[in-house]
Specification:
The protein has one helix at about 5-50. It has about 60 residues and is mostly helical.
Length: about 60
């Protein structure tokens, strides 16, 4: 009785799970950095569109 296929399969599953476990924080960090960069761009774009002096741009008269 040869146990080689079972042992090889077990090692293959272990390596795949180990790679998933090792690479998942890297993918999560990459996604977080991308989302933060997009948020920063939106905030900068919004700040550039809004007036710099809120008192001078009021539309209501006293």
């Amino acid at each position: 009785m040869n146990h080689f296929p079972f042992i090889l399969g077990s090692y293959a599953v272990f390596v795949v799970l180990l790679l998933i476990d090792a690479l998942s924080p890297w993918f999560a960090r990459r996604t977080l950095v991308r989302e933060l960069a997009q948020r920063l761009k939106r905030e900068n774009r919004r700040a550039a569109q809004s007036p710099t002096d809120p008192e001078s741009s009021s539309t209501t008269s006293p």
